[in-house]
Amino acid sequence: MIHFKQVSKRFPDGYQALNNIDLNIDAGEMVFLTGHSGAGKSTLLKLIAAIDRPTSGVIAINGHNIVQLRPAALPFLRRKIGFVFQDYKLLFDRNVYENVLLPLQISGFDNKITAGRVRAALDKVGLLKKEKAMPITLSGGERQRLCIARAVVHRPLILIADEPTGNLDMAYAREIMTIFHSFHQVGVTVLIATHDASLLEENRYRVLSLQHGKFAA
Ligand SMILES: Nc1ncnc2c1ncn2[C@@H]1O[C@H](COP(=O)(O)OP(=O)(O)OP(=O)(O)O)[C@@H](O)[C@H]1O
């Protein structure tokens, strides 16, 4: 489902964030990506969603090489991928419902089906009763659940999360992990970047460890 061959990323300032990465994640797998701060985790996740481009190498998502994807083709890739960002990226002038609706509106979904989709996504993360709330009134755990609802509302094949439990205490972090498990159980490919060691100990999934832009042996 996610395939990297000899992928490198060098930023314009010359910094080499990823160095000849090979990676294979099968459809339906749930995988953790770990490593020190600055190891290249966020960079790797952004390459999968073509938010950023590699300097060299091949990245295939669901069998399609995305490295030279034309801008017009990006929305088709992005519909396959749900991305939970490290810094939430919520719209604070829109309520919970509207935040989740936005990706569907951008994709041009028919109004007849959007309400059902939005409510189904909010239900999965336990936020149905808060659909009219403004994000500022939500707790950190609720904001993170809102981000997950927004990421899955278009029913992606792949769910990517960058430090989804970073600012949460253990109880909230477990709650968030339970939500990711539930998507994994229905066949979604899940990739989670974290340096929260307690999460890694509690979950028996494959762990990929990045060190200075390379996978640790
Ligand atoms: N646009 C950019 N230009 C230059 N360097 C960058 C850019 N984005 C990231 N970097 C650098 O690339 C390295 C990897 O960054 P990245 O955000 O991928 O690390 P990370 O493993 O996700 O770290 P953290 O756990 O702290 O989020 C860092 O040294 C970072 O400063």
Automatic annotation (TrEMBL):
Keywords: Amino-acid transport, ATP-binding, Cell cycle, Cell division, Cell membrane, Membrane, Nucleotide-binding, Translocase, Transport. Residues 2-216 form the ABC transporter domain. It comes from the Bacteria. Its main location: membrane. One of its GO terms (cellular component) is plasma membrane. The keyword ATP-binding applies. GO terms for biological process: amino acid transport; cell division. One of its GO terms (molecular function) is ATP hydrolysis activity. The keyword Transcription regulation does not apply. This is Cell division ATP-binding protein FtsE. The lineage of its organism: Bacteria, Pseudomonadati, Pseudomonadota, Betaproteobacteria, Nitrosomonadales. Pfam families: ABC_tran. Belongs to the ABC transporter superfamily. It is found in: Cell inner membrane; Cell membrane.
